[in-house]
Amino acid sequence: MTKILLIMLLTFGGLGYLYYTDTQERLAQLRENNARLEIAAQTSQDTITKLQQDAAQFEAANNQLRSQLNEAEAYSDDLQAKLRNHNLTVLTAQKPGLIETRVNRATARLFDDMEKLTGALKDDIESLDITSTSN
User: Fold this and answer.
1) 3 lies in some domain
2) How many domains is the chain built from?
3) What is the pTM of this model?
């Protein structure tokens, strides 16, 4: 009977040891998985925060561009109204010097504005050595 008890004790001891080692391996694996999940969750949160910041910046830039577009459209409407009110063909025939001077000044201002908007420098444009042809 002592042999049976000894065998049972050794069997239960062996089973207990196997259960303990298996449980420890599972706990180690679960800790590792938990660490990976925490890193993934933090990365996801950082990405969400960055996307929200980017969306706010894009919205601000879009609002600014929309405002500039509205201003440009208002300016365009104003110019169209002025051109409708004046017959430039008749005015050019009557006072060619006056019209030419004004058109040249307005064209120069327009080019300056375009250079400012596009970031082109005057020196860069002058270095292109563009010769104008006039009749």
Assistant:
1) no
2) 1
3) 0.48
